[in-house]
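Cross-posting from the modeling subforum.

Setting up a comparison between two proteins and wanted a second pair of eyes on the formatting. Protein 1 (sequence, then structure tokens):
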Amino acid sequence: MDTVFYAELSWPEVEARIAAGAPVFLPLGATEQHGRHMALNVDVVLPTAIAARAAARVGGLVLPAVAYGNRSQPRTGGGPGFPGTLNLRADTFAMIVRDVICDLHRQGARRIVTLNGHYENIGPTIEGIELALDAIGRDRTADLIILRIDHWELIRPETLDRIFPEGYPGIELEHASVIETSMMMALRPDLVDLSRAAHDGPARFRPYDRYPRPCDEVPPSGVLSLTAGSTAEKGEWLLADCEAGIVQIIHREFS
């Protein structure tokens, strides 16, 4: 079967591809509010699609995404004040990453890429990788390479300049804003309805966190910046950067 999706293959096909050295991608997402104009699965759709595009070019396999993310925070994802968001504790998320990596290693996978689509997953992903290395045994990892990638880090500065001629607000405030909206318009326009977007941002957060905190600094829409200017064309620019960046990393690190 000609597919990059691990779960669509039979076990002999997976066994053969891993034995041949296929890089294995683990998309890390979330089920989280993304404004009134987009579906809750943005952080699953984006890393899965980017991984699939890259995997098709490097002979890789894409695992089913982890569809629940580490606890959404007001300053990066809107926080707990919106219906729909489903959170995992950091230790739970880290253990999922650990267990998947350990089982991949048991089956012979030695080239593993975690591709993250949810800002709050960063720390628990790092912990999960470290726990996996501890569990496998650091003395048994000479032939193992694990890459941890946040897809937004691969967007080129010149692309950001084209999209934000008046200045890039930063990835934290881009939650459900131009970058994610444009990429979703390119990939899944059926899950985007810009007519429902409310231009009530950008958010202006104090430079500290308070617990338990109300969400009074988060715009009521859940969009931390603005959606104005989002287009499918811009989404394709962004996706092209992410795909090319991953392919370049794979060739450099797994050569």
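Protein 2 (same layout):
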Amino acid sequence: MKVSTLIPEFTIRAASENDTSLILSFIRELAEYEKLSHEVVATDDDLRRSLFGDRPSAEVVIGEYNGSPVAFALFFHNYSTFLGKPGLYLEDLFVKPEMRGKGLGKVVLAYLAHLARERGCGRFEWWVLDWNEPAIKFYRSIGAMPMDEWTVQRVDGEALDALADTFTESQK
């Protein structure tokens, strides 16, 4: 458990398999805030397998204020071929609305930056929705810069299946 000297009541700990339902509840709260609740299809079993199974895909930390869970961050490693080093990618960061403005999010980000440096990462990055002005303002205040020259691309659902099928078909 990591304690912030800036906010002694706030601790950060690695999530365990026992936190699976808590993690899912944080994901649902985040999705509601982002107006994306309709996209959450994850289940406890999905999270248990992908976060705590034989080959974990991501890690989670839980932020607790006076012993109560109030924040979470889900992250994983990516890789930069240009740097020749791993990076740390933050998929989700959520602080309960009633706990915002206390600096908890900054402590979580500082912890993850520390972890990235400790693990030899060349960068720490994340996405933010373009309408989320409070988050963007906060990120700028800690030195984060937008990657304006990049456009995110995604293939999912039927398009993912169709693309994968082109490879499967070529193997016959």
